[in-house]
Recover the amino acids of this structure.
């Protein structure tokens, strides 16, 4: 009793349905016929092929590309559910429904676990069409979702590459600009020193402007370099003792602290999962700013930390000039300055750098402040192991 | 004192010279992390991370070795030769500072790759001035090789 | 009795060579400053070849890294391989702050490494400090004519 690949093509004059290519894996002719009838009765415009052995199945499934596979559980020397293995082996995503005689619930669950899409009992063939429709629907949805994911992945990739290009450009440009700038700065200064008072008054002024401009450019390029460097390396993370970092930072700010008569109060700080150099930059910029943007009174700077469920919350509080709320976001943008150069020096890059360090760690940074009433800069750092991106960039 | 972070290794068996040197370095605030070895053997153990200094790492060498020539156990020239002929230690800046006025010591020192050779003045003030200048030059003007404690072996791949 | 010290500056940027001369002008050491623009010429000068047949042996070499024809590190390696040239102290004077460059310079026997400052005043101070140390503090082997 065998049928070696009987192919039946029957057009049904019922309501028009999309053509369904079905592959039946069945060693019993009668059962095969019953299934075909059940499908046609439901109005499927079905094109059916029947195979019996695993070898035939593998061959036909590749040749025919069926939309659905209906397989008997018991096929003599193999089981219908093994067809799922064959599908996986050929990387084919085709829904497979086990259509079988008595099958215990245990076996049914096993079939699904092994990858069958569904199972239907031979004495409940009425269920078959709905099972087929559902399987096809799920496959379609899966396909759509996969498409969307692929598109998204491609766009993310492009964006990352474009970002990387821009950063590389900023880095190379600022790096390569340093050398010619060094020449301009050195020689305008030399000219200025040698010839001030020796040419006419205008010349002195011109030389002065040129020299100043060159020096400012040098600082600007250095800042730009520092800013673009933050994105470039993904420094490996380590357990960083913030108290040690703070000690270094206070040492390097020693002369600013002394000049301003600043008092810096620092609470006991935790160990965080970060990079030493970057944490140094963060604290150096925040505390440096707290000292720089002061009122007439000597600056009082307090550094505190709180532990929340998923993160550390650091705060750097000062009694300085404060920031009007409408500028609270602006100050984190690169090169945005709120004050004239003559009032406070600097290029407005410090906070942008801090933000660029904190955010890839999965943290947030913001300021709470009022003009004339001091500022509190707060930032979070996820606890190690908490839901945070490992490493700064893809 | 943590023996890992050492800026200057001073190798001299003369207590007087050691005191003068430390004093001079202190006036320039350079004396924070000075380790004194009294003989060539101790200097070698320190630099080669062996014996009592086995806990030290080749990744954190001193920024400067101030080495006298006449030392007990192992003399300065041999210390210099050993340090400059081993790939793990050859990059450490070594400055010979000696009372010897022999031209051949000078020549041999530079032949062996000493970073610089200084002749100790007899006068105390001149001695102190020399130490100050050399401290400033080697620790401030100069860039020592492993400021970040990264080992050379890590670099060879690039 | 101190003879005039001779300094060889190896740098392809004439503007930097001028800055060196400006920095050391009027110094008590009255160094004679020679300069060459590339690594090949540096070796010719040091080995007294061709147009440099009568060149004087310098007492100190100030070496930039980024040189045409023969790179600074190659010049350094060649110098430290020769029996007489190896005794001449070499100061690497470079804008590079890369640790690879610094470590490699020491590995090849460079005596010290000084960053070329971007600021004029600091450039002058560094240059003066170099001259003062090598010609005023350290003892150098006699080079002879």
């Amino acid at each position: 009793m065998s049928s070696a690949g009987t192919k039946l093509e029957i057009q049904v004059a019922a309501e028009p349905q999309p053509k369904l290519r079905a592959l039946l894996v069945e060693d019993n002719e009668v059962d095969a016929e019953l299934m075909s009838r059940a499908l046609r009765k439901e109005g499927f415009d079905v094109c059916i092929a029947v195979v019996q052995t695993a070898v035939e199945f593998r061959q036909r499934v590749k040749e025919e590309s069926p939309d659905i596979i209906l397989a008997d559980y018991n096929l003599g020397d193999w089981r219908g559910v093994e067809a799922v293995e064959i599908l996986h082996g050929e990387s084919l995503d085709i829904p497979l429904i086990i259509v079988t005689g008595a099958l215990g619930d245990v076996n049914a669950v096993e079939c699904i676990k092994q990858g069958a899409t569904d199972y239907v009992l031979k004495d409940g063939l009425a269920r078959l069409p709905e099972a087929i429709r559902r399987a096809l629907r799920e496959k379609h949805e899966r396909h759509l979702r996969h498409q969307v994911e692929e598109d998204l992945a491609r766009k993310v990739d492009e964006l990352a590459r474009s970002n990387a290009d821009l950063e590389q450009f900023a880095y190379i440009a600022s790096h390569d600009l340093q050398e010619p700038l060094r020449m301009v700065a050195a020689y305008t200064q030399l000219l200025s020193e040698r010839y001030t008072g020796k040419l006419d008054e205008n010349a002195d002024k011109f030389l002065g402007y040129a020299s100043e401009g060159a020096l400012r450019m040098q600082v600007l390029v250095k800042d730009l370099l520092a800013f673009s460097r933050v994105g470039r390396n993904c420094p490996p993370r380590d357990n960083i003792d913030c108290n040690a970092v703070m000690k270094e930072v206070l040492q390097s700010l020693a002369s600013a602290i002394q000049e301003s008569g600043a008092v810096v109060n620092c609470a006991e700080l935790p160990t965080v999962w970060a990079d030493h150099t970057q944490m140094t930059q963060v604290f150096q910029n925040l505390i440096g700013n707290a000292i720089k943007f002061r009122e007439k009174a000597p600056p009082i700077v307090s550094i505190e930390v709180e532990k929340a469920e998923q993160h550390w919350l650091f705060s750097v509080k000062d009694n300085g000039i404060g920031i009007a709320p409408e500028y609270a976001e602006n100050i984190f943008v690169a090169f945005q300055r709120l004050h004239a150069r003559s009032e406070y020096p600097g290029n407005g890059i410090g906070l942008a750098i801090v933000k660029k360090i904190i955010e890839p760690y999965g943290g947030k940074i913001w300021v709470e402040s009022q003009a004339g009433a001091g500022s509190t800069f707060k930032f979070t750092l996820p606890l190690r192991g908490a839901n945070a991106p490992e490493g700064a960039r893809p | 004192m943590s023996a890992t972070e050492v800026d200057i290794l001073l190798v001299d068996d003369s207590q007087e010279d050691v005191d003068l040197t430390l004093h001079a370095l202190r006036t320039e605030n350079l004396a924070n992390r000075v380790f004194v070895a009294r003989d060539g053997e101790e200097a070698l153990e320190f630099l080669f991370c062996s014996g009592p200094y086995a806990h030290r790492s080749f990744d954190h060498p001193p920024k400067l070795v101030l080495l006298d020539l006449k030392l007990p156990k192992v003399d300065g020239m041999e210390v210099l030769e050993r340090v400059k002929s081993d790939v793990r230690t050859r990059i450490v800046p070594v400055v010979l500072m000696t009372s010897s006025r022999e031209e051949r010591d000078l020549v041999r020192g530079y032949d062996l790759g000493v970073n610089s050779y200084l002749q100790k003045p007899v006068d105390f003030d001149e001695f102190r001035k020399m130490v100050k200048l050399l401290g400033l030059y080697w620790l401030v003007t100069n860039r020592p090789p492993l400021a970040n404690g990264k080992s050379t072996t890590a670099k060879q791949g690039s | 009795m101190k003879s005039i010290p001779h300094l060889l500056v190896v740098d392809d940027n004439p503007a930097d060579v001028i800055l060196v001369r400006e920095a050391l002008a009027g110094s008590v050491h009255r160094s004679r400053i020679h300069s060459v623009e590339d690594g090949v010429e540096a070796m010719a000068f040091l080995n007294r070849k061709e147009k440099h047949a009568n060149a004087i042996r310098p007492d100190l070499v100030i070496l930039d890294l980024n040189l045409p024809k023969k790179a600074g590190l190659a010049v350094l390696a060649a110098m430290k391989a020769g029996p007489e040239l190896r005794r001449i102290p070499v100061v690497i004077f470079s804008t590079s702050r890369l640790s690879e460059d610094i470590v490699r310079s020491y590995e090849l026997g460079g005596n010290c490494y000084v960053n070329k400052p971007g600021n004029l005043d600091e450039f002058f101070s560094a240059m003066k400090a170099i001259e003062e140390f090598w010609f005023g503090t350290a003892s150098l082997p006699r080079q002879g004519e």
